[in-house]
Amino acid sequence: MRELTIGAFARASRLSPKALRLYDELGLLTPARVDGTTGYRYYVEAQLPRARLVAWLRRVGMPLARIGEVCDLYETDPPAAGLVIGAYWARVETETAARRDLVTFLVDQLSGKPAGKGVDEMSDMRMRYAAGTDRGMVRPVNQDTAYAGARLLAVADGFGADGARASGAAVDALVALEESVRGADVLNGLADAVDRVNRGNREAGSGDSGTTLTAMLWTGSRLALVHVGDTRAYLLRDGEVSRITHDHTLVQSMIDAGSLSAEEATSHPQRALLLRALDGSADHARPDLRLHDVVPGDRYLLCSDGLFTVVGPDDIRHVLRTAAEPADAVSELIALALAGGGPDNVACAVADAVTV
């Protein structure tokens, strides 16, 4: 098979010789031969499809580690590689939307618009709220924590021997922000609080213990969302219910990649395996942070997996649409989880945005 010099291969693959040398060092694109005397790298034409795929994926901004995984998959199952690329781009679009919201928020702050005021300071909108938890019918202790206040809604689902402490500490750290953080400091405050909680779990040395966390802190006509793990946030707006968080679980990553359907995920043996959580590990604790506009009439639900793995989406939708008050919604949702066998702790927090 005809060999190509690194210069010729670079031109054919649309990669620079410098990039090819880097990809060789990383094991991403290894030459077919390296001259033992001169150190010159030589490639073959059969390597061009992989090299061109690397070039395209770099152009769309995919990290090198992810590119290696996609290229390896491409060589054995091209359709599966295509699904992974599609899932990656969907995630990029979601994160781009979050950054766009943040830019809008910062522009409002710097231009003196009133978005930086806390919701509780606004004259035309308030939050009605309620929260509750239940041990369920099987678990010996309750490791879920829920909180609802004028500016904060939070749910944490602890796990491991020290899970109750971990979930309580996570929510307590955010409750401390309810009166102290305003305006442009909201997202930084949430990120710092999550980091402190994670460090605390590491210092506690509780082995496999930790917690998931989903919380919303209102600031003006927007809410700041922080999310780690598989607790969830839902929004009821104009009669339609949508989920506004993305589970950090193995099965969700498989759904994103197209290798598993949402229906199959409900019975997958590893459906509870978390990819992110506040377990003391820096690698697993990266939270999703974003901003959402709040509209009068919105109803928000935060809940642990003890609710949504037992109560179907149609029932959740019905309760959110029909419950007169947040406290009614919390009571009805927990009752449905218990009626479904209550195999896990369950936590709910509900808030309505109302005009006064």
Structure description:
41% of the residues lie in helices and 22% in strands. It has 356 residues and is an alpha+beta fold. The chain is elongated. The model is unreliable at 115-123 (pLDDT under 50).
Topology:
Blueprint: E1 3-5, H1 6-13, H2 17-25, E2 33-34, E3 41-44, H3 48-59, H4 64-76, H5 78-110, E4 126-134, E5 144-148, E6 152-159, H6 163-175, H7 186-204, E7 210-219, E8 222-228, E9 232-237, E10 240-243, H8 250-256, H9 262-265, E11 288-293, E12 299-303, H10 305-308, H11 313-322, H12 326-339, E13 346-354
Antiparallel strand pairs: 1-3, 2-3, 4-13, 5-6, 6-7, 7-8, 8-11, 9-10, 9-12, 12-13
Helix pairs in contact: 3-4, 4-5, 6-7, 11-12
Q: What structural class is derived from the secondary structure elements?
A: alpha+beta
Mean pLDDT score: 88
How would you sum up the global shape?
A: elongated
The number of helical elements comes to: 12
The percent range for helix content is 40-55%
Order of helices and strands: EHHEEHHHEEEHHEEEEHHEEHHHE
The separation of the N and C termini measures 78 Å
- Give the strand order of the largest sheet, numbering strands 1, 2, ... along the chain: 4-13-12-9-10
Strand content: 15-25%
Largest sheet: 5 strands, antiparallel
- By DSSP, the count of extended strands is 13
Low-confidence stretches: 115-123
- Global Rg: 24 Å
